[in-house]
Amino acid sequence: MKIAALALKTKIIIAAAAVAAAAAVAGTVLFLNSREGSYRVVKVFETQGEHNTVQRGSAGKLDAYSGMNLQNKDVVSTGEESSMRISLDGDKYILMDHDSELELVAENTAKDSKTIVELKKGEILNEITEPLSKNSTYEVNTPKSTMAVRGTSFDVKTEMLDNGSYMTDLEVIHGKVAVWLYDENGNKKENEVLVQAGYKVTIVIDPNDDTNNSPDVDGNA
Q1: What is the value of pTM for the model shown?
Q2: Which of 66, 72, 70 is closest to 84 using CA atoms?
Q3: What is d(CA 104, CA 66) in angstroms, rounded to the nearest whole number?
Q4: What whole-number distance in Å separates Cα of residue 203 and Cα of residue 181?
C-alpha cells in the first residue's frame, strides 16, 4: 500500500503508536546527555516485510527489527515489498514506503532536538505530533532542496527520471512546510516557499550540462 493512501489514517496510527512507545522505551535510551530527562529515544517502531536494513559505520549492514535502537548517521533502507516506521522521542514519526532509503541525523536533546532526514530515494510520511520547541528543528533534505517544519505531517517522494533529472514531490497533509532550493554551487536560493496544508509541489533538479555529474552534485533546482 502506498504511503499516500495512509495519510488519512496517520493521526490514529501515530496516536496508538505513541501510547505503546511510552510503555516500551524504558531501557532503550539513545543519544545520552548529561542533563536528566534530556535523552533522545530513536528506534525502529515497526517493520513489515523483508530486506529492511540498517547500515551502521564499521558494524556494516544489519537486519532491522521492531524495537531496534537507531544511532546518529544510520542509513535505513526498506525492501521492494516492505515498509518501516521510525519513532523519534515519542512525538516524531517517519513511515518509510517500500524501496526507500534515508540517512538519519538525530542530535542534541529531546527538548532541543536537531533532526535531519536525508532522503536518498523512495517515499516517506513525516508526522510531528507536537509543536517543536523554540530551539528544535526538523528537516527533510532531498537533492538540492530542503523542507523544514515546526509541527505538521507531510509526504515526500524523490526519484531519478529516465532523462537523468531528479524529481521530488512534497504533499502537505497538516500544518505548513517551508521549502528552499539550491543552485549548482550549493548556495541556498533567496526565495523560500511556504506550502500550506492540502497543497502539493514538485521540484525538478536538472543535471549540469557542463560537468555531466549527477544532479545531486551540481545540478540546479
Answers
A1: 0.82
A2: 66
A3: 17
A4: 9
